[in-house]
Amino acid sequence: MIHLPLRRHLVGPIRLAFTLLGLPHTVWTSGVSAVNTSYCRGHSTMPSSAGPHVKSRCPQYPGSNIKRLSVPDDKVDWTQKWPEYNPVSYTAPSVLNNPAWADPDIGSSSPNFNTVDGAVDRTSFEGSYKVENGKPLNPCGRTGLAGRGLLGRWGPNHAADPIVTRWKVDVKGAKVHHSVSQKPVLQFVSIKRKDWASRHSCLPYGGMVDPGEQVSLTLQREFSEEALNSLSSSPAERAEIHQRITNLFKSSGFMVYKGYVDDPRNTDNSWMETVAVNFHDDLGNSVSELPLEAGDDAGQVQWVDLDSSFPLYANHSHFLEIVAKERKAHW
Q1: Which end of the chain, N or C, is less packed with Cβ atoms under 10 Å?
Q2: What pTM did the predictor assign?
């Protein structure tokens, strides 16, 4: 398995091995730079005011009535002694029901952490993490809650975020420039979900990778189902969607970020990590012409002007800021 070295900007062909909710796969990018960052080790391109994890210490755990133990900033790091620290342990019923995407409880199984454990990649983009009493410790520190919460895997839960963009154009097809920055305006596909995260718009989520499936194909499939509702389309419409999406996702994507995600679902023992990849419809002739329609998990989907004032879920606004700078667009 190949990991990109930290603290570098890479230009040229890149072979990136990563996982999507536990299963290792590979995606190729070429001819573009890639920002490789580590969110909680102090050398990220993310603004310093964003971390260490803040949303991961939200007072009430999402989708529940469970309250986190309040963790002050100076006690987040595991190296800071806090003998009184005794957070409540919580794992959501949906996880305890043992769905296929979730691990069994510790005790009934003994996962091999910091390695590829059978079909599950338990390595972290943040490097080697500590294991205490048989359970992994969040590499960014204390969250005020033990257990797995809503997350299926003990340790890192790997995901991928497809960032699909196009240029905003006028009726004549010319790029629209922002009145203040004078830079062209990008638009991205925004999802408003039906679940506990519905208060915030977000990027379309990458889903489970089927065995043997390339991550690029997974992102293509999930984007089609979430943003274009291809499952409810007629065979002819599905064929049209498939062709246009294929043309976009077979292009060289810009890898925006890889690493820890400051996500409110994170706990002391389970956390989100992601690879965010930007697929840009530069000519406006692939997904730009398709009508957006929310799938089962999404309540609303639309093209939104990329702007720093638009509120988004978790780290997504930071990902879009990197995309705007890469595309020399308004932010």
Answers
A1: N
A2: 0.75
CA 42 to chain centroid:
19
The one-character DSSP state at 150 is T
Type of residue at 7 = R
Bridge partner residues of 201 (DSSP): 192, 312
Triad 111, 114, 117: Cα angle to 5°: 45
- Measured over the CA atoms of residue 97, residue 275, residue 54 and residue 185, the dihedral's sign is negative
Q: How many CB atoms lie within 10 A of CB 167?
A: 20
Tokens of 185: 């305006």
Least Cα distance to 71 among 149, 143, 146 occurs for: 143
Provide the H-helix boundaries in the chain: 93-96, 215-227, 235-249, 316-326
Instruction: Tell how far CA 84 is from the center of its chain.
Output: 33
For residue 163, what are the β-bridge partners?
A: 278
Q: 138-189: per-residue pLDDT in tens?
A: 999 999 999 999 999 999 998 877 888 999 999 999 999 999 999 999 999 8
Q: What is the pLDDT of residues 22-59, one digit of tens each?
A: 333 333 333 334 444 455 643 333 333 344 689 999 99
